[in-house]
């Protein structure tokens, strides 16, 4: 008959099975809660603010007027203003003074402007009641057509 195995005094270590279970559960938790989608990026655009408005804002809070405005940062180029107007019958679009009845008509006009040899500055100026989604759709098309800078107007 065999002699029973004696326990040593150093054998008081905790079992590793429960520790492995906890680590595995943590691993599963972090894999399930992590997102493997590509992170959403900020829109690479600025707000078109006239120099007078920037100075007025600076004067209201008591600070000095800004050293440079958007107009000073780059050479003066032509501006194309796209207005998005909300009406009773849906959205209307204007490029300067030219009316575009639908989004597809606006897109074709933007594509023709983008194909010109000049590279105009495009400013998207929506009404207050226009959804931001519609502004971003115009922005995406303009960037896709190769406009170098697309800005959003503020009142």
Characterise this structure.
GO terms for molecular function: transmembrane transporter activity. It is found in: Cell membrane. The chain is rod-shaped, with a radius of gyration of 30 Å. Mean pLDDT is 78; it is low at 68-72. Helix 4 packs parallel to helix 5. The chain has a six-stranded mixed sheet with strand order 1-6-5-2-3-4, with helices on one face. With 155 residues, it is α/β, with parallel strands linked by helices. It has a domain at 47-61 and 70-153: Nucleotidyltransferase, domain 5 (2-Layer Sandwich). Helices cover 37% and strands 19% of the residues.
List the helices and strands and how they pair.
Elements: H1 16-33, E1 47-48, H2 51-60, H3 70-73, E2 79-87, E3 90-95, E4 98-100, H4 103-114, E5 121-126, H5 132-145, E6 150-153
Parallel strand pairs: 1-6, 2-5, 5-6
Antiparallel strand pairs: 2-3, 3-4
Helix pairs in contact: 4-5
CATH topology of the domain at 47-61 and 70-153: Nucleotidyltransferase, domain 5
Low-confidence stretches: 68-72
Question: From the coordinates shown, what is the CATH architecture of the domain at 47-61 and 70-153?
Answer: 2-Layer Sandwich
Spatially, the strands of the biggest sheet line up as 1-6-5-2-3-4
Oligomer status:
single chain
What separation lies between the terminal Cα atoms? 96 Å
Largest sheet: 6 strands, mixed
Query: Which of globular, elongated, flat, extended, rod-shaped describes the shape?
Result: rod-shaped
Order of helices and strands: HEHHEEEHEHE
Structural class: alpha/beta
**CATH class group of the domain at 47-61 and 70-153:** Alpha Beta
Strand content: 15-25%
- Please count the helical segments: 5
Which radius of gyration do the C-alpha atoms yield? 30 Å
Q: How much is the average pLDDT?
A: 78
- Number of E-state strands: 6
Secondary structure: helix percent: 25-40%
Subcellular location: Cell membrane
GO molecular function: transmembrane transporter activity
Organism: Allorhodopirellula heiligendammensis
Membrane topology: Single-pass membrane protein; Single-pass type II membrane protein
């Amino acid at each position: 008959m065999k002699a029973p195995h004696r326990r040593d005094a150093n054998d008081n270590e905790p079992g590793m099975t429960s520790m492995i279970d906890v680590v595995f559960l943590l691993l599963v938790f972090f894999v399930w809660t992590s997102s493997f989608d590509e992170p959403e990026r900020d829109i690479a655009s600025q707000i078109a603010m006239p120099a007078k408005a920037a100075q007025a804002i600076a004067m209201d809070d008591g600070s000095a007027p800004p050293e440079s405005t958007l107009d000073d940062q780059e050479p003066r180029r032509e501006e194309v203003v796209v207005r998005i107007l909300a009406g009773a019958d849906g959205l209307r679009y204007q490029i300067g003074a030219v009316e575009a009845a639908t989004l597809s008509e606006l897109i074709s006009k933007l594509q023709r402007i983008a194909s010109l040899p000049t590279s105009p500055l495009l400013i998207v100026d929506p009404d207050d009641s226009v959804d931001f989604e519609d502004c971003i759709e115009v922005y995406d098309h303009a960037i896709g057509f190769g406009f170098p800078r697309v800005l959003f107007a503020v009142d």
